[in-house]
Amino acid sequence: MPANRFNGFTQYGVGVGLRIPHYDEILARRPVVDWFEIISENYMVDGGNALATLDRILEQYRVVQHGVSLYFGSAQRLNGDHLRRLKALTRRTGTPWVSDHLCWGSVDGTYSHDLLPLPYTWEAVERTAQQIRHAQQELELPILVENVSSYAEFHDSEMTEWEFLNEVVERADCGILLDVNNIYVSSWNHDFDPMTYVNAIDPARVGQIHIAGHSRFEKYRLDTHDHPVLDPVWKLYARAIERVGHTATLLEWDDRIPPFDELHTEALKANRWLAAAVQSPMAAAQSPVAAPESRHAAA
Amino acid sequence: MQLLELQRTMLAELRQPTAPEDNSAAAAYLRPGRRLSARERLGIYHRSYWARLRQSLAEDFPALRAVVGRRRFAALLDAYLIDHPSHSWTLRDLGQHLPAWLEQHREQAGRRWRAALDAARLEWAYVEAYDVAALPPIVADFHADSRFCLQPHLRLLALSSSVDELLPAVHRDGRTQPLPRLRRERVWLAVHRADDLVYYRRLDRIAFTLLQSLGRGLPLGQALPVACAAAPRGSSPESTADAIHAALALATQFGWLCSPPDASPA
Ligand SMILES: [Fe+2]
Fold first, then answer.
1. How many cross-chain Cβ pairs, A to B, lie less than 8 Å apart?
2. What is residue A7's predicted lDDT score, i.e. its pLDDT?
3. A178: β partners
4. CA distance A230 to A232
5. Gap from CA of A229 to ligand 1 centroid (Å)
6. Lower CB count within 10 Å: N or C terminus of chain A?
7. Is residue A295 part of a domain?
């Protein structure tokens, strides 16, 4: 039974990111993996090795698309060429949903290639929700929007990040890709309690969870995806699963990438909490923070 | 501040080559944190912006770096990025203007400008050949009025140094051998893809000119005399004819000839 309307894929279990250093091993050994997450932009090309490899992966594995540069929060229109190529790729992969970030990254056609933070204003809520709705219509697939790690806050902000996220997804009528590592990193950088964030998220909209490692510096935490998942992040994950139920989970590891088996073993640690969630699929209902009355709650 | 204005202000600050810790209006729109000032917070994004773009170009242009040297390469990349920030959703396109820009900015490459330009052109051709579309090749029936378009992943480069010998060496992981010395020489090169790998193949001048002429849309009957005119002085008609045949055989073997877009289906 799906945990919610945006989480009809609870059987997806634990996935890992498909990364180039693992191509040969995956194709040669064909390990059992629940699913792979790909960075959409790496495969939005017209030919060559990336697409050929993807096709071979698709013969055996389920693939979910995760994007990094649609920039729902950019003040100007989404890039039409990007959307068209993204849609073509979704037809190739059969991805059940498409995710990208709650951020901005380009202005006047110049791209930062970063996930830049938004001011949490009503103007940004409206703009971002409108762009997500547009992308959802164009792609004809559910969109999950992911909270990012951030290192800056704006004077203009009128609400907390979790209030902003809830407002955007409600207006856009989209799902959430909850990155608990990003919540932890931002909570350290901005001095809030990460558990407050996890408890505030509308569980009826969470369709996927990201876990990852980060780096600690003296004055800030940086979302580097180059370490195993740290204990405080597992605690947030446990709480998220308790609230949301069994949810497709993905370990992100993008730098200093370990051998495939090591990476996969780290990801599979998530099963400890997922197994418990199977026994109480309506965990969300037991949340101490009441799930908002929602016309979206029934799946 | 309106969202658009805020984003314009912030991206303009990220694009500045100097760190915002030294000079920035960040405090006007960013809150300071308990441990970091507004400028220091913007500094995290600033370092990340420059590091990401520099790394992307460094990965795509290792031969250019080998030609001009590490220090000059770093300065060259920053100067290029100021003139040509990314205008694409993919970093793959970031170096697309680098060859033309280097042609205009000789001072960035120093003494070895020609070789640097060759390296930049070759490496950008590699990026393109790696993932552009492949069209179905045609088994050509050669007539005087036959027209072709070239395989989209085929790039023809006329170079003035042996940078094609440098590229395999700089691409090799864990390189321990010294890099080959560059020689000044005319090199006519085909950069193309086969079985999803990119290859370089030296051509003779006749083959290069023939393919270039066909690629410009000339019918075979008009391309042939142009190619023959490129034969080395004193070549015999027989050796020129052999070279033409060899060029067409090579193009057929590698599937470089395709139907032009306006050709009616056979
Ligand atoms: Fe993430």
1. 124
2. 67
3. A209
4. 6
5. 12
6. N
7. no
Domain CATH number, residue A121: 3.20.20.150
CB contact under 8 Å between B131 and A220, yes or no, is: no
Q: How far is A240 from chain B (nearest CA, A)?
A: 27
Q: How many domains does chain A have?
A: 1
Q: Cα(B7)–Cα(A104) distance, rounded to whole angstroms?
A: 8
What ipTM was predicted for this assembly?
0.92
Q: Is A107 left (phi over 0), alpha (psi -120 to 50) or beta?
A: beta
Per the domain annotation, does A161 fall within a domain?
A: yes
Å from B55 to nearest chain A CA? 12
- Give the gap in angstroms from C-alpha A162 to the nearest C-alpha of chain B: 18
In chain B, residues 209-238 whose CB comes closer than 8 Å to chain A: none
Helix or strand or coil: residue A119? coil
Give yes or no for B44 touching A (CB within 8 A).
yes
User: Of A205-209, A220-224, B127-131, which gets the smallest average pLDDT?
Assistant: A220-224
CA distance A1 to chain B (A): 38
Whether A249 is covered by a domain: the verdict is: yes
Cβ contacts of B97-102, under 8 Å, gap ≥ 24:
B98/B57, B98/B61, B98/B64, B98/B124, B99/B124, B102/B76
Contact A154 B134 (CB under 8 A): no
The pLDDT of residue B173: 60
CB-based burial, A173-190: b 16+ in 10 Å, e otherwise: bbbbbbbbbbbbbbbbbb
pLDDT by residue (tens digit) across A101-142? 999 999 999 999 999 999 999 999 999 999 999 999 999 999
pLDDT tens-place string over residues A41-78:
999 999 999 999 999 999 999 999 999 999 999 999 99
Which has the minimum average pLDDT: A32-36, B41-45, B164-168? B164-168
Over residues B130-140, the pLDDT tens digits come to: 999 999 998 76
Instruction: Report the predicted TM-score, pTM, of the whole model to 2 decimal places.
Output: 0.91
- Tell me which chain A residues have a C-beta less than 8 angstroms from the C-beta of B31: 152-155
Task: Sort out which chain A residues have CB atoms less than 8 A from B85's CB and list them.
Answer: 110-111
Does a structural domain hold residue A183?
yes
Residues in chain A closer than 8 A to B87 (CB atoms): 109-111
Is B208 in CB contact (< 8 Å) with chain A?
Answer: no
Distance CA B98, CA B84 (A): 8
